[in-house]
Amino acid sequence: MAKLIDVKLRFTTPVLGGMPMNEDIYRDFIASKAPEDQDTEDEIDALTVDDEITKGKTTFPRDEEGYPFLFDYHLKGFFKSACGFMRDLKGTKSSTLKSYKKKIDGQIFVYPREIMFENVTEIRECQRPLRAQTPQGERVALAISDEIPEGAELSFQVECLQDEHEKLIREWLSYGTRNGLCQWRNSGKGRFEILKYDVSDEKGFWEEE
């Protein structure tokens, strides 16, 4: 028997968008530096993170009317991250899950595809410095992201094809109340509280009627 979980979260700290507004950041950066008649493809192929730590602004995906949302894979990515950290904690359900990335990819599903933010009062900017150690020494760049204030909510469903995975979802969401969702979590961004967590049995698609 599979499990279907109805979840509703409310952010207790601001949450940052992580998608580049410019879909081809590196290509545009190189092209802007090159003469008009110069072929930039080789430079683009050779570009590394040391050449340009960050450029442009990150945001949230938007629907046709401009409302922000997260894709289902953002939540699955969060599950993988939470499980990866909790695997080191003895006594957790995550510490016993083998091949956890494969299990999350193939046996845990999030719906709908586009998970709309609710109760969004405004979208503002968050600016912060990014530092990285490179062969040329420390480099600093300015990162700019769209930010949705605390109080915004997300509602979605999680389908677990194995009963025991339901407790893992609960564990990962509990971790998110401390570590957060989306970008810059180490500063406290993206933390949330769980408003709803309702579990129901669901006949697996492979089971006979």
What does this structure look like?
The protein is of the alpha+beta class. It folds into 2 domains: 2-21 and 56-202, Alpha-Beta Plaits, CATH 3.30.70.1890; 22-52, no CATH class. The chain has helices spanning 25-33, 41-46, 72-86, 100-107, 165-179, and strands spanning 2-11, 15-16, 19-20, 57-59, 69-71, 108-111, 114-118, 124-134, 137-148, 153-160, 192-202. Strands 1, 5, 6, 7, 10 and 11 form a 6-stranded antiparallel sheet that branches. Strands 2, 3, 4, 8 and 9 form a 5-stranded mixed sheet that branches. It is globular. Residues 33-54 have low confidence and may be disordered.
Oligomer: single chain
Tell me the span between the first and last alpha carbons. Answer: 12 Å
Largest sheet, in brief, is: 6 strands, antiparallel
Which CATH first-tier class of the largest domain would you pick? Alpha Beta
Taking all residues together, what is the mean pLDDT? 83
Helix content: 25-40%
Derived structural class: alpha+beta
- What general form does the structure show? globular
Q: Which residues form runs of ≥5 with pLDDT under 50?
A: 33-54
Beta content comes to 25-35%
* CATH hierarchy: architecture of the largest domain: 2-Layer Sandwich
Give the total of domains: 2
Instruction: State the order of secondary-structure elements, H for helix, E for strand.
Output: EEEHHEEHHEEEEEHE
Under CATH, the topology of the largest domain can be stated as Alpha-Beta Plaits
Q: What's the alpha carbon Rg, rounded to whole Å?
A: 20 Å
What is the number of helices? Answer: 5
How many extended strands?
Answer: 11
